[in-house]
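Title: [Solved] Transposase 3D structure

Original question kept below for reference.
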Amino acid sequence: MTIINATQYLKQLLSSSELNRIGKFTGFCQRLRDIQPARLLPALLSGLGCDKVDGIAGLHRHFNALQLHDTDQIAYKPFHNQLRKQGFPLFMRALVERAIALRLKECLPDAHGLAGFEQVLLQDGSSFALHPQLAEHFPGRFNKHSPAAVECHMTMSLLDQSPISMSITADTESERKHLPAANSLNNKLLLADAGYISREYFADVTKAKGSYLVRGSQNLNPKVQAAYRQDGREMPKLLGKKLKDIDRRSCRAEVLDLDVSSGKYKYRLIRRWFAEEKRFCIWMTNLPRERWPAEKVMALYRCRWQIELLFKELKSHNRLKAFATRQKAIAEGLIWASLLALLVKRRLALTLIGSAELSML
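Solution (posted by the thread starter after getting help):
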């Protein structure tokens, strides 16, 4: 469903009847008691979306402050018990999915020659430390520093500047499992960092007539099949060489645009030398060289910065660090609630600012 008007968006999202229906369906609120979904959600969104609520006690005070009558206020324990329910994270996740489905009109103008793509998707993940006693449910990758942690996996639309798919798992789970299905990327472009490298997946994307642009890792060492300088001139002396054998002594070109092979997989690889940092930067892609020269590809990858900004906003301005709870349902539910607050703020902000230039700093 596409909703153009922001007021209509909020009315649909905060509909009392719909919230109560979802609350019953997820088991969060089987009977309409004092803490009804239609009263709780505005408190969660405004509380998590500002910088003034610290911890669950602060969220409880914020809930009571929003009530119109003193008789509607509730004590801390029943408020806490409501958030402890196993249906709480299910309820919040369902609302996130609903907020994604109620899309506002895309208001980002075409930029960087992306008009030929039906959609431009940015893929990334970010981890959050939890209370150590949740390590059984959400084991972290770094046992000493963060024994319990979750990973938020996100696919973001560059066109409407908002997530279109999200999931929460233990920090130890592979990021690549949460990539969009390759056969769903027809006429779409995927941007991702080096953590998502999978040659088999990239081959499937190409087969589906999709496009990808991914940051390459430093351990890549494919065989060169064709080599070009940044100005398009061929470099036949590099044919047949391994990538790591082409160092600064043997090749002084700042930018190399290569066709390479690694086993049965073939792809395009662009490598650039950064003199100040004394290191190479690598990109893997299947974008055609004729339409997408190396310089344009490197500039295009900077659009991926948008999802980095989104995660920074999530961590910095949605109060996730303030909730050190031992309750699995509360921890997971508040992460979904924070994601929902971020999603709503971004959707409404886009309607206020209208078209805007992409930040690629």
